[in-house]
Amino acid sequence: MELGVALALVFFCVLLLASVAIAALLIRHCLAALRRPDADPEARPVVVMVPRHHHHSTQYELALSSEAPPPVTKQQQQQAPAADKEKKQAAAPRRLTWREVEALTGGFDESAVVGRGGSSTVYLAKLRDGAPVAVKVHRWCGGERRLRAFRQELDLLRRLRHPHIVALLAYSDDHEEGGALVLEYLAGGTLADRLHGVGAPLTWPQRMRIVHDVACALEHLHDAGAPPVVHGDVSASNVLLDGRGLGARLCDLGSACEGFSAAVAPTRAAVGSPGYADPFFLRTGIVSKKSDVYSFGVLLLEAVTGMPAAGDQHGTTENLAPRILPRLRQQGVAGLVDGRLGDGYDHEEAGDVARIAVECLAAQPGLRPAMAQVRAAIAEKAARSIAKSDYYGHHHIQLSKLLELT
């Protein structure tokens, strides 16, 4: 009997001690939670959407602040939700069915075709509210290379967001023999059309604005991400212009190479367009970020002289760079500036930009500057014209309108 009482007392003491220990542990966790910064609204870190002005366009980046944010104005309260909503939507383009693509293009109506490529056709389509979009329809017909190019472009456009790279709004990739990219529509056509087509020539400030925009896009491809991206087909035909201030977007990433800063296998390398292709690549099969720099150098010459990159100027078949470079090195830009400009250009800027082009066109890739240096040089040397350019911001289609595609 005494043994039973003793065991009961021991059990009771153990239970009591365990209860005390559990209570102490709970109290300790509660006190720790009360001391954490996120329990104090005045002291916790605040995630703030901070506007960042970059190359005359406004982007948003995340910033951490250890203090409460400053008072928000009524205008900021109205603008921030819309900007935040657009950013979230832009991060995830909508996936369409092939039937939706057919409906969007009117059953692939030939009258809606605005462009053709080797394996793609571009249709001008409209959303329900009338907003225009460009639908790039790929047909690979069993061709592995064409399918790979489509997948490459789709993958990069889904991840890349930059004011001077054409924006992907939606896509379709579940069809056996084709795919589609729904892109923002730019009413200004291509840079090649504006430089060499009919109509009023681009002004000198407009040209400087455009080449600076393209330089920004290439700098972003080369340096902003990990791994870096080589565009592989920089040309005036792959630069789209908006219909208002002639802001530029780089397009056509189907030839891009990702993850290589030195070289890639020749069978997977980009070859570039006639007149723009890097001669070092053509000799060796080695492509790098400096291949894009060479192509951009040709683009600079094209903007300064108004001459096409791939010959056919005054009956000659010689490409622009080898034809012009000797004259530039010997006598500078005198007599080479596009005659359609008359005296409506900055002579000092023209000489400086031509010298930047010469550096980009160095025979050895190692002697060419990086795109970040090229972009900075253009921003400095052509600053007056860039500031004067008739530029009212970038035309962005509201991505929320894609919800009305069906």
UniProtKB/TrEMBL annotation:
The protein's matches in InterPro entries, at most eight in alphabetical order, are given as:
Kinase-like_dom_sf (IPR011009), Prot_kinase_dom (IPR000719), Protein_kinase_ATP_BS (IPR017441), Tyr_kinase_AS (IPR008266)
Which Gene3D superfamilies does the record cross-reference, listed alphabetically? Answer: Phosphorylase Kinase, domain 1, Transferase(Phosphotransferase) domain 1
Residue span of region Disordered: 59-93
GO molecular function terms attached to this record: ATP binding
- PANTHER family, alphabetically? OS01G0253100 PROTEIN, OS02G0106900 PROTEIN
Q: What keywords is this UniProt entry annotated with? A: ATP-binding, Nucleotide-binding
Q: What residues bind ATP, as annotated?
A: 136
Give the superkingdom in one word. Eukaryota
A Pfam match is Pkinase
Is the keyword Nucleus in the record?
Answer: no
UniProt-recorded name of the protein: Protein kinase domain-containing protein
Low complexity compositional bias: what residue ranges? 73-82
Q: Where is the Protein kinase domain?
A: 108-397
What is the protein's species of origin? Urochloa decumbens
